[in-house]
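Quick one:
INPUT:
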């Protein structure tokens, strides 16, 4: 009997679609799920006629795969991954590859890579983005882990991954241990930001301009023919066009409380750990948290006087201002995300290919957009680029958008419409391009109450000073450190 090219554990939405994708590319896949009925229903149903082999124990799964075995896990992140790994170890051999394709937290992947390599196995933690459709037709795949494992899985991964217009594959090796899952985490954080920016544009059009869902559908549809051309803008247009059974917009009947699975929070926490100002994405996470306080918000809306909405301008002109503000903010989101990747790469000794990451995100994934091509070009020209804003294209583009950006943010403030991510993006931009910020006063205050010391503009960097501000203190200063 022919041995399978790869095995896959977990036949939920993403797992079964990846299996069907692999089988459609000529690979034979062995599958396993905890419940035998799930295997039977899949093999005899959606996978009928495909090169898919059902197995009913991990030993049977292992025995059915060609050496060196490749076993992919598409299961819930966290403890279940560790549990299945422990069950696989006795039925696999040294040199076999275990692949985690779920949304695992990258420190777990670092730990698992080390653990399995010490036992003689190879490990890959890979981000897979694109949802159900992407998994079936071609996702973006971001693998990291044991470098020796990459040649073993590369033919399969690159065959099933998305391809962009020139045939380039949206899958390549990211880096050692947790690099792949880290990049996927940042992808998801940027996704949070992109979605939040779109909802803020929607909120402004709906509440300031009084536009209907049908009108906004047309606007987003037209925006998808501009620099904002992307999957998320496209599906926003489609969502706004869908009607409920009574003919009214379905979106208007959806409760305004947002869910989240944690990857956006992980991104924000990682940014705090690395000391990177990931302000836009952090605000997008907090916005979801605020939306969840629905009952409290209803009470507050009745307790406080509401700001009357007054707009006397040209609606068409303001819509264009919103588009430009959305694009400028989007640039900031990616600039911050790439700054985080650069900082984490230094901390974890990863050699990340930033242009290659933009290419991996160019197709298949949720944040796919034409805009990512510009990011790839920026890093192709200067692989050591410290911030996207310093690339000539992005510098010139943001400068051309700033007036509209300020008009939109100020209009939202004056009309009581929250735009936390657009505002955070603008504040970051203004802060980033400020040669001098008020942190000198901040350091003086820290030194006053805690003797935390400060540096001086007329002395060399790295030389620290303490002042006895009250005359009652001593000359002893606190230790100098940064977290």
């Amino acid at each position: 009997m022919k041995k399978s090219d790869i095995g896959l554990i977990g036949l939920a939405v993403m797992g079964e679609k990846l299996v069907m994708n692999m089988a459609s590319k000529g690979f034979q896949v062995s599958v396993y799920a905890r419940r035998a009925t799930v295997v039977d229903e899949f093999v005899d149903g959606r996978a009928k006629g495909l090169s898919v082999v059902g197995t009913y124990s991990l030993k049977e799964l292992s025995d059915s795969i060609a050496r060196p075995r490749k076993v992919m896990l598409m299961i819930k992140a966290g403890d279940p991954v560790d549990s299945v790994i422990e069950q696989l170890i006795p039925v696999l051999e040294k040199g076999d590859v275990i692949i985690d394709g779920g949304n695992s937290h990258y420190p777990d992947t670092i730990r698992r890579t080390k653990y399995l390599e010490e036992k003689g196995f190879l490990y890959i933690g890979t981000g897979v983005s694109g949802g159900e459709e992407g998994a079936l037709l071609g996702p973006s795949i971001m693998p990291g882990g044991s470098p020796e494992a990459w040649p073993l899985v590369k033919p399969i991964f690159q065959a099933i991954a998305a391809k962009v217009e020139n045939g380039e594959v949206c899958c390549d090796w990211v880096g050692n241990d947790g690099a792949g899952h880290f990049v996927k985490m940042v992808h998801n954080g940027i996704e949070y930001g992109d979605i939040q920016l779109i909802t803020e544009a929607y909120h402004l059009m709906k509440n300031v301009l009084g536009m209907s869902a049908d009108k906004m559908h047309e606007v987003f549809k037209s925006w998808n023919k501009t620099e904002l051309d992307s999957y998320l803008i496209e599906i926003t247009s489609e969502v706004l066009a869908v009607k409920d059974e009574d003919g009214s917009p379905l979106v208007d009947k959806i409760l305004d409380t947002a869910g989240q699975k944690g990857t956006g929070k992980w991104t924000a926490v990682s940014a705090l750990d690395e000391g990177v100002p990931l302000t836009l994405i952090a605000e997008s996470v907090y916005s979801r948290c605020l939306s969840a306080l629905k009952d409290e918000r209803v009470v507050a809306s009745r307790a406080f006087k509401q700001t009357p909405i007054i707009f006397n301008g040209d609606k068409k002109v303001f819509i264009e201002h919103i588009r430009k503000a959305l694009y400028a903010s989007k640039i900031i989101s990616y600039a911050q995300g790439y700054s985080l990747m650069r900082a984490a790469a230094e901390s974890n000794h990863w050699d990340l290919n930033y242009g290659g990451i933009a290419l991996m995100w160019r197709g298949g994934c949720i944040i796919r957009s034409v805009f990512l091509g510009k990011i790839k070009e920026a890093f192709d020209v200067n692989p050591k680029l410290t911030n996207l804003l310093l690339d000539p294209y992005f510098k010139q583009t943001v400068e051309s958008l700033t007036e509209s950006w300020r008009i939109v943010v100020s209009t939202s403030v004056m009309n009581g419409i929250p735009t936390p991510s657009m505002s955070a993006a603008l504040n970051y931009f203004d802060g980033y391009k400020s040669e001098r910020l008020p942190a000198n006063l901040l350091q003086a205050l820290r030194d006053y109450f805690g003797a935390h010391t400060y540096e001086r503009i007329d002395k060399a960097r790295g030389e620290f000073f303490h002042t006895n501000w009250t005359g009652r203190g001593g000359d002893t200063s606190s230790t100098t450190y940064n977290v």
